[in-house]
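Question thread 4412

I'm putting together a teaching handout and wanted feedback from people who do this every day. The idea is simple: show students a protein as raw sequence, then show them the structure tokens that encode its fold, then repeat with a second protein so they can compare. Below is the first pair exactly as I plan to print it.
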Amino acid sequence: MEGQVGSATWNDELIYPSVTSCLTITCITADGAKWGAHLSMFPLQRQTHGRGVEDYNPSYKVMLSELRSLMSTGKALSDVRRVWVVGMLDGWTDTLRPASSDQDRMLYKSDNQPHAAQLIAERLVLHYLAVNDTHFQFRDWSRGDVKFGTGASADAIRPWTSGGFL
């Protein structure tokens, strides 16, 4: 779900629902486990204790901190082999913030992707990964669910709709 982090073992799928304006960051470990964060462009609503419903929009710093904590608990931080950044790349900047003007350094431009990859590597403490096309993959997608497969296909990202793979 948007605004949340999660994980899946090598034999489970990791699905991000309704990827339309959001951005997903997924780390794949050597054993095929998947660890991910689903960043939202727009404020989300959540229940609060005693105060009803409030809007919130966790920043990439908060989301990556939560992802790092989750991965640390699973002892996965030292085993990441690839990082996928998937979503509406033309709506996000290379600093992993929603774009606010045409002057922003847009993420869909490949020249801006190394900066975003470096930011992710720093926040997740993945300094052992080279910031290149082998370890960091960017894919523009804004038409529905994104699914990471199981086992040997854990690193295979496939666009998904209710009718099946596209």
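The second pair follows. I'd like the answer to focus on this one:
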Amino acid sequence: MEIIKYLIPLITFLLGMLLTPYIEGLKEKRKNRILKDNIWIELHDELINLKGSIKETDKNISFRKNKIEKLQYLNLPQEIELLILSDKLKEIYPYLTREQRLACKTLIKLQDSINEKREEVIKNYLGSNSRCQRLEEAMLKEKLSMYYLINQLIHSKDKFTRPTESNDHLILKAAASLDIQNKPSRTNN
């Protein structure tokens, strides 16, 4: 009986030592699953915002057409901010599929490019209507590309694969699904 009294703490200690890596692994998996879920939630929210942003950009382009060069018009949707994706991509990078990693990097590049063009429109809206129109047309193409990519990502999740169709074709598909008036004819910016 005396031996059992001394062996129980020793056995408990050894079990704790053996199970620690397993428990830590479970904690890490849970943390990464929560991060991925948060990114999917953010992408779903951004998809909803992007629909409105695309329609607003489309209206702006229609308004700018055939107007005088010195037109002073500024009505831009809010910036695109994929905060969780930008901040946490490094942490969950190894837990995404190769296709998801490439898509996430593309989304961040598109976000930066769209926001840069938005800033250019803000800088130029007092002087050059045609420049602002070209910038908004380029933004529209990128937003449509982003819309298609986010839509595919959130609906496919771990089964996501990059489309094999050309970006031009995907943009036209996205434009048609959103009933955009100013359909892009080509995507070379």
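Top answer:
Good format. For the second protein you could add a caption like this: The radius of gyration is 24 Å. The chain is about 75% helix and 0% strand.
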